[in-house]
Each structure stands twice: as structure tokens, then as C-alpha cells.
Amino acid sequence: MKNIFLLFVFSIFIIPFSLGQEPWSLENCIKYALENNISIKQQAINTEYNSNVLQQSKINLAPNLNAGANHGWSFGRALDQTTYEFTEQESVMSTNVNVNSRVTLFNGLQQLNTIKQNEFNLMASLQDLEKLKNDISLFIASAYLQILFNRELLAVSQSQLETTHAQVERTQKLVDAGSLAYGALLEIKAQEASEELNVVNAQNQLDMSFLNLTQILDLDSVGDFDIIIPEFGDIATQEIMLTVGSVYRDATTRLPQIKSAEFLLSSSEKGLEIAQGNRSPSLSMSGSFGTGYSDYRQRLIDPDPLNPVFEPYPFWDQMVDNRSTGITLGLSVPIFNGWMVNTGISNARLGVMNSKLNLDTQKNNLYKEIQQSYADAVAARKRYLAAQEAVTSMEEAFKYTENKFEVGLINTVDYTFDKNRLTATQSDQLQAKYDYIFKMKILDFYRGMPLSL
Predict the structure, then answer these.
(1) For 211-232, how does the pLDDT look when each residue is reduced to its tens digit (9 = 90+)?
(2) What gap in Å lies between CA 216 and CA 213, rounded to an integer?
(3) What is residue 306's DSSP assignment?
(4) What is the pTM of this model?
(5) How many Å apart are CA 94 and CA 236, to the nearest integer?
(6) DSSP label at 3?
(7) Which domains, and CATH codes, for the chain?
(8) Which value, to the nearest 10 degrees, does the dihedral of the CA atoms of residues 401, 197, 208, 155 take?
(9) Residue 197 half-sphere exposure, CB side, CA atoms within 13 Å?
(10) Is 4:185 a contact under the CB 8 Å cutoff?
(11) 39, 129 in Cβ contact below 8 A?
């Protein structure tokens, strides 16, 4: 029984803790950011606001309906609203109830055009939200690849340190045996100290890249946060078969910044139609219903001209008998309003022109970005292939240098020089590798492919 209890405790506390330490993939990072990023939440609120504006513009087509009631007292000479007679009694108590409604029948299609304009504004806002998500996704991908680069750079630094450490031990034995001068040991130890510093710097860069990614994700702390290391294979075996034109054609139909600019152009065109609608006459219809009660009013029960007899007029009887209804058609024709209509139309035309220029600017910027990204990808591939050949050559050359150093044909200075050249070449190869990966991911992203490794 005790063992069962301990197993239960382990399942509650230990297993969830272990699950929480699973490394994150790029897809996990992007998904988490899209669900928790504050900027995305703010843009989503703006989108919801535009949705409310659209909903309200649709409701505005319906008639309005209002009701009112008042109850009061009049003192001295006053007009009784139920009899339209002046009364001289000390006070008159009255109650009035009314209901009224109004609907616009025609106003130059301004209401319908406003609905369409708000629909375009909402769609543009949704595309702006997608644009923000894309930007954050690319930002996360860059930070993720930076971690992978720094991790491999750390591994290279550690490997170089291990090699140098083995040479220190070998040199120590040769110095102890009297085969080498003590100065050779000092030189190789200086190289070891330099490479230990390289390892520390590489570890610091890796830690900072982890911190950068966790800050982008808005995680509380780095803690045991780790990422999955993907297998890239030989990333540059094939030529880049894409063209700037094909990528641009895909991008213009997929990317949200282009769609947003197109929707804003449509919105401004509807804005022009709304402004032109102000020239049109407007026709409205209104209806009203009202009734009232006054304690001054009395009901005639004996119509004797010489001695008429009255009795109090009950409240509900008056409310029924005093009912009145009305229907009104209203026509308004704009003639002159301080040139405001013409100015509004002129400004709306300028808004359309500006929206067209904005769309052209977005397309031009996109084409230039794709041109630059394509050129960067081609250059990065060439640099990566050249770096691969350089690393292969330097590794072979360093093996030869290492063999000569071990038999005493070269001194520590020459050995250290060649070793540093190898380290620099390996570092360049890693930079070229991840630069090429990121540049190709950007091109794929323009084509509508999801970010993944």
C-alpha cells in the first residue's frame, strides 16, 4: 500500500515536471508566440473593434424606436394639453406618454456604402493581424537558428580545446623528458588558455541567444528551456530552382500586406461613394404615438346647456381617449452647405489616390525584398559551398601540420597559427550554413510555405 502511495505521488509531481522539460521545436515556439504575444493580442482587439463598427453600421439600417413618459404639475395659468384650454386653478397634474420611430428610406446609398467600407476595413485589419503574425514568426525563426548556430560554434570551440589539451599533455611529457624546451610548453598552454576563453565566449553567446528567444516568447525565465536540434542533411546539394518572378507572383496572392493594401484601396473607393452620396436628397419616414392624462379634464355626463354636469375623468379612460398617432415623410435636398460636400468629395478622391500609391509602394517594396532575399540566398549558397571546401582543405592541412608538430618539424607558433585558421574557417562555414538556411526559409515563406525545420 505504501508503494502504491509513493507511485501516486511520483505520478503527480515528477512526471508533469519531466514533461515540462521537453525541448521545443520551431513550430512549438511559433504556436506559443501566436497564442500569447501581447502585440498580437492588441491587434486582435483592434480587429474586434472593427468588427463591432461593421455590426453597428448594419444595425443602423433598422428604424430607431424610442419611448418617453413624463409626469408633472403646473401652477397658475397653464395650458392643459388634453383640452387645449387655459386653466386658472392652483395646480394641474398631468401625465404624458409617447413612442416615436424614424427610418431613413434613401440617402444616396450612404448607409449601404458605409457597410461595404467597414467590411473592407475589417478585412484589412485581419490581414494586418496576419502580417504581424508573420513578422513574429520570422523573428522567432531567426532567433531559433541563432541558437543552433551558437550551439555548433560552442561544439567547435570545445573540440578545438580538447585537441589543444591533448597537445598540452603531450608537450608536458616531452618537456619532462628533456626533448622540448620549456618555452614550447608555455606557448601551447597560452593557446589552451585562449581556447578556454573562446569556449566561455561561445557559451555566453549561446546563453544570450536562449535568453533572446525566451524573451521573444515572453517566458518568465530561461530555466531548463531547450530546443530540438533538427537534422538538416546536405542543405546545398541542389541549385536554387526558383526565380524572382515566380516567387513574387506567389507572394502577391498570399502575403497579407498586399491584401491589406488592396482592401484599404477598396475602402477608400467606398469612402468616395459615401462622399458623393452627400449630394443626393435624403428621404426619411417617422411615426409617433402619444397619449396623456390631466386631472383638470372632466367628463361631461349631462349636456344641459344651462347646467351641464361633469364628473372626474378616470386615468385609464383618458389614456385611451387621448391617443394620437402620426406619420411623417421628410425630404431634405442639399443646396449649399459651405462647400463642405465638394470639399469632402475632393478629399475622398485624394484618399483613393493615396491608397493606390500605398498599394504600389507595398508591391514595389515586396518585389525589392524578394530580389534581395533571392540574391542573398544565392550568395549564401555559394559562400556555404566555398566554406565547405575550405573546411575540408583546412582539416587536411591541419592534420599534416599536427603530424609535423608531433615529430618536432614545426614549432608551437606555426601549429597555433594553422589551428586558429582552421577554427576561423569552421566558424565561417557554420555562419554560411545557417545564413543560407534562413535565407531559403524566407524565400519559402514568401511562397506561402509554413516555417519549419
Answers:
(1) 999 999 988 777 788 888 887 7
(2) 5
(3) S
(4) 0.80
(5) 92
(6) H
(7) 24-62+109-280+337-446 (1.20.1600.10), 71-106+286-333 (no CATH)
(8) 30
(9) 6
(10) no
(11) no
